[in-house]
Amino acid sequence: MTEKQTTTSAAFFATLKRDLLIAFKKKNDIVNPFMFFIIVVSLFPIGISPESDRLTEIAAGVIWISVLLASMLSMDNLYRSDFEDGSLEQLLLSPHPLFFLVLAKNISHWLVSGLPVVLVSPLLAYMLALPEEAYGTLVLSLLLGTPIMSLVGSIAVALTVGLGSRGLILAVITLPMSVPVLIFGTLAVQSTLNSQSPLGYLSLMLVMLSVSVSLAPLASAAALRISVN
Amino acid sequence: MWVWFFKLGSPKWFYELSGKWLPWLIGAMVIFMTVGVVWGLVFLPPDYQQGFTSRILIVHVAVAGTSLAFFPLMFVAGTITLVWRMKLADMVAKHAAILGAWFSFITLATGSLWGSVMWGTWWEWTDSRLVSMLFQLFLLLGVISLRSALEDSDAAAKACALLSIVGCINVVIIKYSVEWWNTLHQVSSPVTTDASSPNGPEFWIATLIMIVAVYLFLSVSLILSTRNEILERERKAQWVQDLVLKS
Amino acid sequence: MLDAIQFSTWAEFFDMGGYGFNVWSVYALFAIFVAINLIFPWRKKQKIIRQLKRRMTLDAEIQSEDDSSGD
């Protein structure tokens, strides 16, 4: 019994390590979502207005939506290369619960494409004239929100992994599902700006995160089994 | 006890049974539709606040109420598809998604035709019902496009079943979070609750008749499409060939 | 029954107390919506049966040709 438990956790960390190694070797997977995020955010002042008053108003929303788009675009390579070189089938055949292996892949994906975006967000918040007191809330809300997006998006990626071209269908499926995260993330920042406590929203996001951690990998695993026959 | 359940999973059994039900359902639908529409257009007295726009509401409320049934329906069908591998559930789910998108669209269109007089605007982000209906439409379109992208019907069935289950959970979360979001943005809203509910028992009886009519229409349309799907998927079966030869 | 009719002239009926365009648009939209979702499945059924019939007669012809050439 104990032996099996240790091997499952070993398999979990092995998958995590492997995915991180591949990502650091390829580098594109890390750099591209990051660059995409910075570029999209920089387009908004040009398209809307360079006045800092108007930028302050839209800053939280712009950053949040750009993060959603960046995380969705980076989702595409979550299972694709594994599907192409056959290692996804190996993963499905492994004796360990698929739940943990999928979770490991999601975590490594978030570390590679979600975390850098969150870390750079204060810089962009500064460029969009977001008042300083909201930086902390913004980063915290993104820290809670981006893993939810990775976990939920993973279900859609798993469902479409066998398709040839799927960039847009992924967006059509995932983006509507991001509404609750977007609402609570931006409300948290907004309430800090109105000098109210954002704790209520942040704790709601924490609840959503823990629910997604426990349920979304189950759905992803089921979806992978459906897609890879 | 479970026999009827697995019998229902047999397309042939469903085809024969629904063939017997259809005339009655269609008859009831025609009666309720006629009564509802004639009452709505000719007899329903004007509301003291809204005038004749209450006549829009009986159609809008009936379609909107019914369109909320689609995701629960797809949730149940999806569970049956995944757990019992019942082909019939997937055939129903496929057409439920398409019909549900129609219902959501008509809800939005009739809602904005009503809003354009009562609120003075065709679209109102501060009305949480409109916003969550919009996202229900998006989620349904996602299910439909996933189905059309995955050509293999067995994998498509399971994938759409899973997405419908996830979507149903999501639509509930979206509904409540959008409502919450709206209570915080009510400052300059033309939407007030007392302006959206006309009074009088006559209005509610007419609405009730329309709701029954729309539910009957939903079942008739869904059964017709499901029967077509059965004919197409079971075209190699002997009973379908006999049926084609007879017609 | 007739007293309950809310209109005395046709013009009044079409005007709907000033909301004619919206009320009639909603009912027209509803009628189109109902009609499309009943007529399309019905016509599709005719089409499917026609196609199946044609395929079956074709199959039968091929079958009989095979039989005659095999003799």
Automatic annotation (TrEMBL), chain A:
Pfam families: CcmB. The keyword Transmembrane helix applies. One of its GO terms (molecular function) is heme transmembrane transporter activity. The chain crosses the membrane at residues 30-48, 55-75, 110-129, 135-161, 168-189, 201-224. Keywords: Cell inner membrane, Cell membrane, Cytochrome c-type biogenesis, Membrane, Transmembrane, Transmembrane helix, Transport. It is a multi-pass membrane protein. It is found in: Cell inner membrane. It comes from the Bacteria. GO terms for cellular component: plasma membrane. One of its GO terms (biological process) is cytochrome c biosynthetic process. Its main location: membrane. NCBIfam families: ccmB. Required for the export of heme to the periplasm for the biogenesis of c-type cytochromes. Belongs to the CcmB/CycW/HelB family. This is Heme exporter protein B. It comes from SAR86 cluster bacterium.
UniProtKB/TrEMBL annotation, chain B:
One of its GO terms (molecular function) is heme transmembrane transporter activity. It is a multi-pass membrane protein. GO terms for cellular component: plasma membrane. The keyword Mitochondrion does not apply. It is found in: Cell inner membrane; Membrane. Its main location: membrane. GO terms for biological process: cytochrome complex assembly. Keywords: Cell inner membrane, Cell membrane, Cytochrome c-type biogenesis, Membrane, Transmembrane, Transmembrane helix, Transport. Pfam families: Cytochrom_C_asm. Residues 14-185 form the Cytochrome c assembly protein domain. It comes from the Bacteria. The chain crosses the membrane at residues 21-44, 56-84, 96-117, 129-147, 159-178, 203-226. Belongs to the CcmC/CycZ/HelC family. Required for the export of heme to the periplasm for the biogenesis of c-type cytochromes. This is Heme exporter protein C. It comes from SAR86 cluster bacterium.
Automatic annotation (TrEMBL), chain C:
One of its GO terms (cellular component) is plasma membrane. It is a single-pass membrane protein. Pfam families: CcmD. The keyword Repeat does not apply. Belongs to the CcmD/CycX/HelD family. Required for the export of heme to the periplasm for the biogenesis of c-type cytochromes. NCBIfam families: cytochro_ccmD. This is Heme exporter protein D. The lineage of its organism: Bacteria, Pseudomonadati, Pseudomonadota, Gammaproteobacteria, SAR86 cluster. The gene is ccmD.
